[in-house]
Amino acid sequence: MPSELTVGIIGGGGWLGRAIGAAMLERGVLQPAALMLSSRSGRVEGFDAWPAVQLTRDNRQLAQRAEVIVLSVRPEQFADVAIEAAGKLVISFMAGVSVETLIARTGSQRIIRAMPNAAAQIGQCYTPWFATEPVTAADKQFTQAMFEACGSTDEVTSEADLDYLTGLVGSGAAYPALLAEAMLAHALAKGLPRQVAERAVRGVVVGASQLLGGDGMSPAEMVQAMLDYRGTTAAGLQAMIDAGFKDAVNAGLDAAELAAQRMQARYGRGAD
Question: E-strand spans in the chain?
Answer without folding.
Answer: 7-10, 35-38, 54-56, 68-71, 89-92, 110-114, 125-131, 151-155
